[in-house]
Amino acid sequence: xxxxxxxxxxxxxxxxxxxxxxxxxxxxxxxxxxxxxxxxxxxxxxxxxxxxxxxxxxxxxxxxxxxxxxxxxxxxxxxxxxxxxxxxxxxxxxxxxxxxxxxxxxxxx
Length: 109
Known about the structure:
Elements: H1 3-13, H2 17-25, E1 30-31, H3 39-52, E2 58-60, H4 62-67, E3 70-72, E4 79-87, E5 90-101, E6 105-107
Parallel strand pairs: 1-2
Antiparallel strand pairs: 2-5, 3-6, 4-5
Helix pairs in contact: 2-3
């Protein structure tokens, strides 16, 4: 796992359950297809966004944005969420995936 991903996980693990719940309760982040994120991913994104001073609203992966004719703006940095690792149609652990907020994207010309 690269250093940035490890740092995100370490910082998140230092939050108390109460701090995580406050982040969850005060968040309205959805995925590009309108789905609500898990509580853990919501708290992870909120903690990362507060650290950077960014207000996240709609998040998606690079290819998800590409599929709706949007591209990531040059120089933008991703946020991390946890995702299941699948093997033979069953969950085989969890890893981190990169996502970007709609404010970090622009319409392709």
